Amino acid sequence: MLTVLWAVAIFCIIIFIHEFGHFITAKLSGMTVHEFSIGMGPKVFGINGKKTKYSLRILPLGGYVKLEGEDGESDDSNAFCNKSWISRFLVLFSGALMNIILGFLIFAIVYSSGVSVASNTIAKVVEESPLDNAGLMAGDKIVKLEGEKYSTSVHTFNDINLFVSVNGESLAKVTFERDGKKYTKSLTPFFDEKENRVILGMNPAPTKKGFTGVLYLAFWECVFVIKSVFLSLWWLITGVVPASSVSGPVAIIGEIGTAAKYGWRTVVNFAGFISVNLGVMNLLPIPALDGGRILFLIIEKIRGKAMNPEKEGAINFIFFAILILFMLLVTFSDIKRIF
Fold first, then answer.
1. pLDDT tens readout for residues 239-271
2. Burial of 279 by CB count in 10 Å (0-12 exposed, 13-18 middle, 19+ buried)?
3. Helix (H) / strand (E) containing 175
4. In the predicted model, is pLDDT for residue 329 greater than 80?
5. Measuring CA to CA, which residue among 147, 113, 115 is closest to residue 130?
6. According to the model, what pLDDT value does residue 264 have?
7. C-alpha to C-alpha distance for 286 and 277, rounded to whole angstroms
8. Largest Cα–Cα distance of the chain, in whole Å?
9. Which residues face 144 on adjacent strands?
């Protein structure tokens, strides 16, 4: 029960922040906002404001800000459809931006709480490991990794772990800093039976904290999550991972329960991951998502005229129905995995 409450609280906060981004930007742009809702489905309770209704609905799986003229034409000069291109863009983009900002703040809180974070600087090289054979030593700072399957600049130890998990035992180039100079060496990661994973062979030094260090870590953690989202989507599209591995609300509740066993930092950090993940997913150029609506705006800018509002509304409705169906299938898959 406690796990469910944790999950509901996390979902509600993330949804609130997302919808608040749309809401406050719309209000600042002078748009007519009919309703601000947290949750979907039947209304639990609501408050009538001066110009806007504020609602809490029974299912904490989404929310919405209902704007005049969002899905059609309107005679109201303050309608969404009658505002400038940049105002409409900012309203659509602000929800995802708020989620990413929330994730950044959450990561900053976690990293400022005394938790030790592994860096991309080597504290110790494992003997006879790929890094040892390539001539790297303690004090070297890995700044870039290039492989046959994946290449990345390196800012935290997460970047190194992601590279190794994607590139596997394929040939790689490692660029590192030593005494202010950069060097590049070739090596081949190998599978370590003791560790039961592919390794480069290093023990990382802890990251130096302080105010700027915390901000640095929080920023690159957001970048890492964004990269992970796009990599995961690419793996799904190319069939590297099966569609059945996609997690829905039920699986996420289970993961929150697992995270709770390791303390509040793990739960809060997981909330940051979900928030950034939601922000990025919402920006995908799929109709019914914010990214799809932004795509229509970009097409409008290129064409020099808006798309037919009725056609745009119909496309968004069809894709919204598809997304709901997809969520139901994912939820069913979650339940099947559990039972």
1. 666 655 555 555 555 566 565 566 677 888 888
2. buried
3. strand 172-178
4. no
5. 147
6. 73
7. 16
8. 74
9. 153, 175
Q: Which two tokens stand for residue 171?
A: 């040939």
Q: For tokens 């309770």, what's the residue?
A: 45
pLDDT at 1: 55
Question: What are 269-320's pLDDT values in tens digits?
Answer: 888 999 999 999 999 998 888 999 999 999 999 988 877 777 877 888 888 7
**Torsional sign, CA 92, 94, 100, 106:** negative
Assigned token pair, 271: 């909330």
Tell me the CA distances in angstroms from 111 to 215, 217, 224, 228, one per residue in order: 9, 7, 15, 20
Distance CA(65)–CA(138), nearest Å, equals 53
Is 19 a residue of the active site? Answer: yes
Answer whether residue 222 shows pLDDT above 90.
yes
Q: What percent of the chain has pLDDT over 70?
A: 87
Q: What CA dihedral angle connects 228, 229, 230 and 234, to 10 degrees?
A: 100
Residue with tokens 């639990």, as numbered in its chain? 44
- Distance separating alpha carbons of residues 296 and 81, to the nearest angstrom: 12
The dihedral formed by the CA atoms of 260, 261, 265 and 271, expressed in degrees to the nearest 10: -30
- Active-site pick, 19, 68, 70, 312: 19
* Torsion, Cα of 130, 134, 139, 140 (10° steps): -100
In 3D space, the residue among 185, 130, 176, 136 whose CA is nearest the CA of residue 153 turns out to be 176
